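In this supplementary section we document a worked example of the pipeline. Step one takes a protein sequence of length 165 as its only input; no multiple sequence alignment statistics are reported here. Step two produces a three-dimensional model, which step three serialises into structure tokens for compact storage. The input and output of this example are shown verbatim.
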Amino acid sequence: MIILGLGSNMGDRERYIKSAISELDKQSKITINNISSLYETKPVGFVNQPNFLNLVISINTMLNPYELLTECLHVEHQLGRVRKQRWGPRNIDIDILVYHSHIIRDEVLQLPHPRLHERAFVLIPLQEIAYDLPVYQGLTSKELLQTMNDVDDVVFYKKINLDFL
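The serialised model returned by step three reads:
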């Protein structure tokens, strides 16, 4: 299972997310399997900014984790992402959350995503597409959510389907 998290809190947030998914889908070595619903979420870290739209997608790919990261960064760049402030406003953000059972901890990539287990805005949509599969240290998204307090900060926004691809 390979899971990507996408988020946007600038401009036409939904359009940016759909455009990012479309650009990923154009890559011949990436296949989009499933898309969660969109959720509106309060910002984390730097909180003085607009709310985000977030979702997660599951993919298949022939790319290794580093090649996939390069492709995600390329799509962000194509869509005009400018990195000014950590956890600051952004038109698009694409994170690799899970890449099968790979564990990587280096300066370039950390898998699974190091804050996956702390973020309801990732775990709630992840429940939709990962079901009862373990996503972090043998725990499911449902089990991880049971330890969190900020689940009310994640509000269903709308259902998305693959028709736009």
